[in-house]
Every structure is written in C-alpha cells, then in structure tokens.
Amino acid sequence: MSVKMTDIDNKGLEAAMQGYIENQDKDHLLRLVFALKDARLFVPAMAKKGGFQPYVVKNQAGDMYMPVFTSIKKFPKDEKYQGMLKMQYKQCASMLLDNPTLVQGIALNPYTDSLMLKTQMLELARKVDTHLKEHPPKAYTVKTDDFRMVMRHNVEFHLIPKKLYEEKMDFINSLTEEELCRLYKIPFEQAGQAKIFTYTKDSFDIMELNVREDLNMMQIATPSEFLYKTNCREVYIVWNPQTGRIAYYMIEKGTDPEGKQFLLDVAKDDGTWESLEDAPAEGAVMNRVMELFAQAQEE
User: Fold this and answer.
1) Contact between residue 58 and residue 46 where contact means Cβ atoms under 8 Å apart
2) Of the residues 39, 104, 109, 177, which has the fewest C-beta atoms closer than 10 A?
3) pTM to 2 decimals?
4) Confidence of residue 139 (pLDDT cuts 50, 70, 90)
C-alpha cells in the first residue's frame, strides 16, 4: 500500500488463534475470546458516501465473510485495497451482529491463518465477554502461568503507558514502588485472582536520572519472578522537561524457546506499540533508549 501505516502488535492474539486452530477445546476458546475482546484489527474498506464500507470476500463454498488482519505482515502481497481502517474487534463484531446481513462472519487473516469466526462464534464470544464482566471467574481454567503472563502483559503494555500518556508529569511524579505494585495488582483483583498475586513493593526498583537539562529518564526494574514471554524485564520512561515530550520504552522477553531473546519496544500515545529491535546488552540499554528518544524528537 502507498500510505505508511503504524503496525499493530497482536502477538498475544495470534498465539491464541494458533492454539485454537490446533485444539478447539474450551480452554483454547476462552484464551481466544480473552485475546480478542480488546484487540485492534486492520479492516480493508472502500470509500462510500458518508464514510467507508468494509470489503467482503467469498470462500470456496460461496459463504461471505468480512476480512480482517492482525498485522501488516498478514496482508496479501498482491491485493490492492482502497483503504484500511484500524478498528476494535468489538466494533467489527457489532457491525455483523447488530445489523444482520448476508455476511456470515469474520475471516481473521484469510490469506494466512484463515480462522473463520461465524456469527454464532461472534455471539458466543460476546456472551462470554459479558459473563466475564458480570461474573469475574473465581476458578480460571487457563494455566496459572499463562494467566499471570497475560495479566502482567496488560499492565506493562496497556495500563501503565495509558496512564503515562494521559496524566503525563502527574503520573511520573506520583510513581513509586508501592504505586507500581498497586497497578500490577489491579487486573488480578478484577479477575478475582488476587490470591495468586505475590509481588510486593520490594519487587520493583525505580531509578530516576536527570541526564541533562533537556533529558530525564526513569528506569523501572520489574519483578524477575514470573517473568514470561511478552513480559517486560524493565521499562524506561523518558521525557524532555523543556518540551514536555514523553516516551515509554520496554525490554520485552521474546518468544524464543530458550527464553534468551529480549526485544526493545516502544509504546505510543495512541495505544499501540512497536517492536523496534533486539535489545542491546544490559549495560547498553540506557544509552540506546536515549538515542531512540533523541531520534524520535527530530522526526
């Protein structure tokens, strides 16, 4: 496509999709529903009077589906779309469930993974999502380690950067080890699983540096206990006191089988994040983060 777009990181959703494709049992269905409910997706669309209309594709049986993609790399190479929208999964599902048409569901990554979510599946996902909101599970069927991984990922990739970009210096000035511990505990409490939350304020370590007049940095060492793939070993909040510009960088544990790879990511103020590169050696991370922040300010 000719327009440069910011990619969406849906690694958690893509893993849940593969798990469900390989094993369509209750546990994998719950993981998929949980991963879908707050996901943002790419939706091909064409211009229409007053707005845009999503594309529709047909499978070999003649059934019609609305194609959506979890990331740019899932786009078909030779397909030319008039436009591409970023939409919440819930919006996509509502378009089909609340306005009945001949379209029979959503096709997730139709040219690669080809996971078809028929309207019955969309309705089930909506019911499960509603039930989880009204009755937080007291006995979650997903493995405890997987549950901890998802809860921690949500805090590090969503909750903290969201508060940072919304509250800016008020958030930075209020951030302590005790406050971090409280933030990490929130999703466990919301899911009725506070009993498996074992972190304390001593599990975190904050170091603030006044590098120079136009650069301040906060390094946050996150708990080493229960550090799973897609969780952060440490995060960096960087800001320019003179311009008020703020950035949030993460050292994320990769998905390699040996667990040795770490990635350097950046979270953005629009709620998305981007994996930038392999993380440098631990002693070189701070300098690299400062370099990236300086480059971003020049753009």
Assistant:
1) no
2) 177
3) 0.55
4) very low
